[in-house]
Amino acid sequence: MKTEGKENYIPALGFDFLTPLYDTVVKWTTREKVFKTKLVEQIDIPSSGRLLDLACGTATLTVALKRRFPHAETHGLDGDARILRIARRKAAASGAEINFSEALSTTMPYPAEYFDAIVTSLFFHHLTPANKRRTLEEVFRVLKAGGTLHLADWGKAANVLMKAASQPIIWLDGATTKDSLQGRLPELVAEAGLIEIDETASFGTFFGTIRLHKARKPL
Ligand SMILES: C[S@@+](CC[C@H](N)C(=O)[O-])C[C@H]1O[C@@H](n2cnc3c(N)ncnc32)[C@H](O)[C@@H]1O
């Protein structure tokens, strides 16, 4: 596993030893199928376009993207070699041809203006405020003009119950969750230069409110 630049790195469930449990925990606690289906449905790209699942984890969403856009060149990036081994196994088992890269979101290994859409789920709360900004600068760089960002993450709690439910996420993933739970992601997306930022859906879950957003790189 690459270590350079990984000082603030938070693995999928907060601790490396929990990674093998990731799929089971997410499936039963986040209404995963419902919110990831909605995220995939909001994407509109040319049939042979290029797609990136940023911080793809075990690639549940990446495989769903490839099913929806079978002719698209589909990429999955994650900084954790261990979780990428699970992702590669899952993609092979489903027959999905996906290009995986082990890299950090702050220095992505793609040329400028490469992707028609970037999708990312349950990831931004893993990043410090500075790394959220750097990652969004990279998103802006590798998106084509007119390309879109589709972001699902823990967001501002919809009510007191959801606020209480989000405490385990704060405990597992630490201080980096703060600006996500304060609802500051749209503001950071705008600071990076993206426009037409809309919240497209929100879901109450066992661990708080998941919010979906869509944004566009200007032409
Ligand atoms: C909670 S998991 C989400 C995985 C997947 N997107 C999903 O929806 O199930 C967060 C992922 O972010 C990855 N990650 C954390 N920091 C990263 C960084 N700076 N660059 C790339 N990946 C990172 C972790 O390895 C982990 O796989």
Can you summarize this structure?
With 219 residues, this protein is of the alpha/beta class. The chain has helices at 22-29, 32-41, 60-68, 81-94, 129-142, 160-165, 167-173, 178-181, 185-191; strands spanning 50-54, 73-78, 99-102, 115-121, 143-154, 195-205, 208-216.
Unreliable runs: none
Output mean pLDDT: 90
CATH top level class name: Alpha Beta
Total number of strands: 7
- Beta-strand content estimate: 15-25%
Q: What letter string, H or E per element, gives the SSE order?
A: HHEHEHEEHEHHHHEE
Give me the secondary-structure category. Answer: alpha/beta
Give your account of this protein's structure.
This protein has 219 residues and is α/β, with parallel strands linked by helices. It has a single domain, classed as Rossmann fold, CATH 3.40.50. Helix content is 36%, strand content 25%. It contains 9 helices and 7 strands; from the N terminus they run ααβαβαββαβααααββ. The protein has helices spanning 22-29, 32-41, 60-68, 81-94, 129-142, 160-165, 167-173, 178-181, 185-191, and strands at 50-54, 73-78, 99-102, 115-121, 143-154, 195-205, 208-216. It has a 7-stranded mixed beta sheet with strand order 3-2-1-4-5-7-6. α5 links the parallel β4 (115-121) and β5. α2 (32-41) packs across α3. It is globular and about 45 Å long. Residues 9-12, 26, 55-57, 60-61, 78-80, 83, 104-105, 121-123, 126 line the site of S-adenosylmethionine.
